[in-house]
Amino acid sequence: MQENLNNTIRPCAFSKNYVIPESQAWLLLKVFYLYRFITANLFVVLYLSDFGPSILGSHDPELYFISSSLYLISTFLSTPLIFLRLIPYVHQAQLYIYLDIIFITFLMHACGGVSSGLGILLVVSTAGGGMLVGGRCAMLFAALASLSVLAEQLYALQTNAFEKTTFTYSGMLGMSYFTTAFLSYVMAKQSERSELLASERQQMISRLENLNRYIIQHLQSGIIICDLHQRIQLSNNAALNLLNLSNMPPALKHLSDSLQTSFEYWLNDPKQNFAILEFNDDNEIQVRFGALNIPGETLFLIILEDVALHNQRLQQNKLASLGHLTASIAHEIRNPLSAISHAGQLLSELDQLNAQDQRLIEIIQTHCKRVNGIIEDILNLSRRSPSKQEKIVLERWLPGFIEGVIHENAYSADSFRLIFTTHPLNTLFDSGHLKQILNNLCSNAIIYSGGKNQIVKIVADLSDETPCIHVMDSGGAISSEIQKHLFEPFFTTSNKGTGLGLYISRELAELNKAKLSYSRKDNQNCFTLYLPNAETTVIEI
Beta strand 297-306 with 390-393: parallel, antiparallel or unpaired? Predict the structure, then answer.
């Protein structure tokens, strides 16, 4: 019985655990075939020549010649069977061993019986059975070889073919057959275990290598590994994207002169492992160098990172620190502010207050509400949750957003005009953050364009493979001086605003790897939100 599972062979029908790789099994069978081919030729050539020992065919020359000739012919006929694999492996291996037992027994009898010494050749056949087939089949071959020798001795005794019979030697041969079969089986099992262990370790190494390669290729940071001669050994897709390359050159000198110079400077002074370099199209990239500790090999790791991404991480840390500080200050201010507001409400309930006093109380209440609004904005900023980016289809999301804004603020249905110039438009963004940014922009557009009756135009398009949302209003132009402070915290030109709306919007945009900017287009104020493209953005690991 033969089973081919994952290129393995279970040779013996009696063996449940003996499994060897298919390529190794066929190689062993070919080696055994070569041994039989040489042995069969020697039996014939030595007999027909004058170089052969006198023992060959000494008892029955005719039987010897017929047996050796048939042995050689059967070996020749099996040549295409083994090289073309016309017969299953197990059947061929068993056939070879059965033929060896038959022909060697006849040759042994023709040469004078057990005393001729040819019976020792069956030791090689039984050993081959243990190596090739294994399991209890090896014991079966040893038993057949022992029985054939014993049968030959009984036949010689019955026919008085020889002067004396040696049953003791026959018994020793039988023991040697069993011992050899057992040892060869044990060696084959040990070889099999070693082969399987090596195969498992190779598969594990291959899986780990594929996993490491997958992780490296999906890192957002660019990775370049080079040797001491600055030859590039490995790089990932992020490095190609950051450098705007389709293929990585073979050496650093072909990649960038500034990168090569920085690398050589780092080799001379390992403390200087950081640099910011400008590549094509004025793209600034942060570069870090490091050595890889690999025995017997000197390799170096170059990490490339977009400065914008680096700034984003710094921005997140800055927001976290600012949030803790402002939250503490806001809580401290809220307590006395609540007392002032409550005292103002109590004063407003007195009957003997004149009109001037009532006006002063109204001023107190108005500014208490304004300060309380500022505190609320600061607390919301301090509670800012991390960005949970998801794929947003703008063609479906923006109409729903505008409908919600109109309903929540009681705007007229024609207050907003939504225009799509490109399809499709998909982005990776936190939907809650995107809603808050556009809420601020739309609210400012309504306020500074003259009120609820004005029309705010929202245009969604694609600029240099980057999805954009333009919020445009017909308000007055913003002076260049004001534009310098437009996104600064607490800067406002309104006596009712807190000055945090645009600042928070810009911080949320950078938190999501987006960009918020102002420009004047078609005699309109235009705030443009540049969004990350969901089709090209690499997921950070």
Answer: unpaired
Angstrom distances, CA of residue 239 to CA of 234, 291, 407: 10, 18, 47
- Let me know: does 83 contact 73? Beta carbons within 8 Å: no
- Based on the domain organization, do 342 and 490 belong to the same domain? no
> How many Cβ atoms are within 10 Å of 198's Cβ, its own excluded?
10
Q: Are residues 65 and 202 in the same domain?
A: yes
> How many Cβ atoms are within 10 Å of 5's Cβ, its own excluded?
9
Distance CA 309, CA 275 (A): 15
Residue 64 shares a structural domain with residue 174? yes
Looking at the structure, tell me whether residues 172 and 226 fall in a common domain. no
Q: Is the pLDDT of residue 3 over 70?
A: no
Please give the tally of structural domains in the chain: 4
Residue 333, domain CATH:
1.10.287
Q: Which domain holds residue 109?
A: 8-206
Inter-residue contact 380 to 523 (CB < 8 Å)? no
The confidence score (pLDDT) of residue 398 equals 92
Is 4's pLDDT higher than 50? no
pLDDT of residue 452: 55
8 Å CB contact between 290 and 300: yes
Q: Best-predicted range by mean pLDDT among 111-115, 141-145, 265-269, 384-388?
A: 265-269
Which amino acid is located at 246 in the chain?
S
Tell me, yes or no, whether 318 and 256 share the same domain: no
Residue 156 CB partners (closer than 8 Å, separation 6+): 109, 113, 162, 165
Three-state DSSP class for residue 225:
strand
Decide if 24 contacts 194 (C-beta within 8 A).
no
Which pTM value belongs to this model? 0.41
Q: Is the pLDDT of residue 311 over 80?
A: no
Residue 27 has pLDDT above 90, yes or no: no
Q: Residue 160: left if φ>0, alpha if ψ -120 to 50, beta else—which one?
A: left
